[in-house]
Amino acid sequence: MAEKKLLYKRILLKISGESLKGNQEHGYCSEAVSQVVARIREALEMGVEIGLVVGAGNIWRGLAGSKNGMDRVTADHMGMLATAMNALCLKDAFRAAAGVPCSVHSAVGMEPFAKKFDREQALAELSAGKLVIFACGTGSPYFTTDTTAALRALEIQAQAVMKATKVNGIYTADPVKNPDAKKFETLTFQEAIEGRYGVMDSAAFTLCADNHLHIVVFNFSEPGALVKILTGDYSVGTIVS
Is 117 helix (H, G, I), strand (E, B) or coil? Predict the structure, then answer.
């Protein structure tokens, strides 16, 4: 059987912090972390170059903290630090379980835990087959990890932002609440705006739309879904372009 052709050579993969906690309320589940590593390794072994942004929801949510009376800037700074913890967790897991070379670039200086983000170095590492994990968001409060994903994707010249979620794409309504909701395999940016489907926050979405950067929303928990998306099978996701 002939190998399927890759549609994307370099991507920015955005995963949630919740993907690392499994069924726990918070923290890390070794089995869940191993699953994340295995699914990303599949794509790496196909020759795909991957920049990775991970959220902080398994540890902390800055917006939730601010709603409970905490200063928003402080709450967001805590969220940035939580993404750094997740990045280090994944870096160790990739090296230990998969032998995958990887590096962590932080938006803020935090040596010796991670190197300060250096675009040229990140590009060189990606070209050499290294997994590059981006931590601490954009380095500024009020910006989500979705916005970080869009920004870093543009900086590393990725062909798409792959947003890993709990559902297999974008629907006309919440499929959990509405069994009649219909799934889209493709959407234009304009259709996504008019439909108000909440693909990403407005800042992240605008960055992608203005720069013609594809967004792919897919179910990361489904085995093989990332590989299918990379070879053009959108039955497991939705592409916005």
Answer: coil
CA separation for the pair 117, 100 (Å, rounded): 20
All domains of the chain in start order, with CATH: 10-240 (3.40.1160.10)
**Each residue's pLDDT tens digit, 197-211:** 888 888 999 999 999
pLDDT tens readout for residues 110-155: 999 999 999 999 999 999 999 999 999 999 999 999 999 999 999 9
Report the Cα–Cα distance between both ends of the chain, in Å, rounded: 30
CA distances from 116 to 70, 92, 145 (A): 28, 18, 17
What are the tens digits of pLDDT across the range 8-58?
999 999 999 999 988 888 899 999 999 999 999 999 999 999 999 999 999
The tokens of 158 are what?
Answer: 């990725």
Pairing of strands 170-171, 183-184: antiparallel
Segments of 144-219 assigned E as strands: 160-165, 170-171, 183-184, 186-187, 214-219
